[in-house]
Specification:
Helix content of chain A: over 70%
Order of helices and strands of chain B: HHEEEEEEEEEHHHHHHH
Strand content of chain A: under 5%
Structural class of chain A: mainly alpha
Mean pLDDT of chain A: 88
Shape of chain A: rod-shaped
Order of helices and strands of chain A: HH
Number of helices of chain A: 2
Strand order of the largest sheet of chain B: 5-6-7-8
Number of domains of chain A: 1
Structural class of chain B: alpha+beta
Distance between the termini of chain A: 167 Å
Distance between the termini of chain B: 37 Å
Largest sheet of chain B: 4 strands, antiparallel
Low-confidence stretches of chain A: none
Oligomer: heterodimer
Largest interface: A-B, 34 and 65 residues
């Protein structure tokens, strides 16, 4: 019976003691402890967050570096290509110029050869004419002395043998 | 007033436990007058788990080692203080101090006027010792927290920190929700109070071994705290759940009393659960030891033989009780947190009880 019968004294002391314990522990233990725990958790979380942030930043800067490197490489390739193209152009142009210059020189040479040739031919024709006349004169001087008919014949021959 | 309340209360409890304790109470009351030369297990067990005005530590033959405790009595407007060993033997199991008679753990006045007993009994003293330990541990931990701010816990601090975090995260946050911070001090205090007292109860010798958390007075006060906090933090939703339940109006006469009974039943169950669990643990362990003496009276050799098994079983039970000590503290805290949670919960239209 006594086992399940609340004792007045014990109930009284328990109420007083428990209230006091609750008050003292709340004020001097639980509040500082819970506050410290919360602060520590916040600190740890902040540290983790900033570490994560730093990691992301490093990754970002690495990516940036990579991008700059890639860009530089591309730029280099482009410059090289352009230089190559310019060189090719210059060579081609030079070639073309040389070719056309050569052709022009050849042309000029051909023209002057033609002119020289024509002049030489004319000279030869005149020389042949004069020589023929002289030869004929010598021959005819022997056989024919001022025979007009022979002279006419010679003239006719000369006309026929016109040199072109 | 208080006495009347306690009286009614104890009658209710008696009705509640009538079946379970008929056996042991009959031992305690019926056979206690007999010559105590024969070992009486029921009497011994009840003697160990009920409160007392003195702290009986051991006895060798007829020599008793007893720690006397202060008796404080209030009678006819006067307080009387004396130590329990100052009482004179008046014969027939009755003791005397001044005009007070003491028999079966109760004081009565010679003139029949009512005596209010505010004594520092065995359970009170044991509770005060536990409280001193509790204060020592947690005040020193608080200092440690202040000293190494933001650093890893050290020593006893790191032993108890996981438990504090467990109560905060798994009990308070999970059961109460956003407003958990207001209830943390009570939950932590109640948890560690019950746990320390449970553990102290498992220590077989002084200053342990008292059945503090297995005392109905203690669990009554603890449950009363939970009840008062729940009631005073109840918001509109909580009260409307009780007085304006979400059912047709015709069911109100049926449902409102049920809800109201529920309000009182919850702390009542808290009180009974802790009391019954811890008391049962003490009874089982004491029961195993009693077996040694029961068999020892039949035959000395048999007593020694049985003692091997008794000690083995007691060892096993003690380990189980270590678990129970934690578990009951946890259960009490968790259920308190759940009741607080139901008191501060905001209304959800899609959720019915």
């Amino acid at each position: 019976m006594e086992l399940i019968q609340p004792g007045l004294g014990l109930v009284f002391w328990m109420t007083v003691t428990f209230s006091l314990v609750l008050f003292i522990l709340t004020k001097f233990a639980w509040k500082p402890i819970l506050k410290a725990l919360k602060e520590r958790e916040d600190t740890i979380e902040n540290a983790l967050n900033s570490a994560e942030k730093a990691k992301q930043e490093i990754q970002k800067s690495q990516a940036e570096n990579q991008r700059i490197l890639d860009e530089a490489r591309l730029e280099r390739d482009k410059v090289l290509k352009e230089a190559q193209a310019t060189a090719n152009n210059i060579i081609n142009e030079a070639k073309e110029k040389a070719n056309s210059e050569g052709a022009k020189l050849l042309d000029n040479a051909r023209t002057s050869i033609q002119t020289e040739k024509a002049a030489a031919l004319t000279e030869i024709k005149n020389l042949v004419g004069t020589l023929s006349v002289q030869i004929a004169e010598q021959m005819l001087k022997k056989e024919l002395n001022n025979d007009s008919s022979n002279l006419a014949l010679i003239q006719q021959y000369l006309n026929d043998a016109k040199l072109n | 007033m208080k006495a009347i309340f306690l009286n009614i209360f104890s009658k209710l409890l008696v009705a509640f436990f009538i079946g379970a304790f008929q056996f042991s109470t009959s031992y305690a009351t019926g056979e206690s007058h007999k010559e105590d030369s024969k070992f009486n297990a029921g009497e011994m067990i009840i003697h160990h788990i009920v409160d007392a005005h003195e702290w009986h530590i051991a006895e060798f033959g007829h020599t008793h080692i007893i720690v006397p405790l202060p008796v404080i009595l209030y009678n006819q407007g006067h307080f009387t203080f004396f130590l329990s060993n100052k009482m004179e033997n008046a014969g027939d199991g009755v003791k005397k101090y001044g005009h007070f008679h003491y028999s079966h753990g109760h004081f009565t006045a010679e003139d029949g006027s009512s005596v209010y007993d505010f004594s520092i009994t065995k359970n009170t003293a044991a509770m005060l010792i536990s409280v001193a330990i509790l204060l020592m541990i947690f005040l020193s931990i608080a200092v440690a927290y202040k000293k190494n701010v933001g650093k890893a816990p050290k020593g006893i601090q790191s032993l108890l920190e996981p438990i504090i975090l467990f109560i905060r995260d798994e009990i308070a946050k999970a059961s109460i929700g956003e407003k958990y911070e207001r209830y943390m001090p009570f939950l932590l205090t109640v948890f560690f109070f019950i746990w320390v007292n449970n553990l102290m109860g498992l220590i077989p010798i002084f200053p342990g071994g008292a059945n503090v958390t297995g005392s109905i007075s203690i669990t009554l006060v603890l449950a009363l705290f939970t009840f008062l906090i729940t009631t005073f933090s109840g918001n509109k939703t909580y009260w409307s759940h009780i007085f304006l339940p979400d059912v047709p109006k015709g069911l109100y006469p049926l449902l409102i009393p049920i809800e109201l009974i529920g309000v009182f039943l919850k702390p009542f169950v808290l009180m009974v659960r802790l009391f019954a669990n811890i008391t049962a643990g003490h009874i089982i362990i004491l029961g195993f030891f009693s077996l040694i003496f029961i068999f020892g009276e039949m035959n000395t050799g048999l007593g020694y033989g049985v003692s091997v098994f008794s000690v083995a079983f007691t060892l096993f039970m003690s380990f189980l009780e270590l678990l129970v000590a934690f578990l009951q503290a946890y259960v009490f805290t968790l259920l308190s947190a759940l009741y607080f949670g139901s008191a501060v919960e905001e209304h959800h239209h899609d959720k019915h009880h």
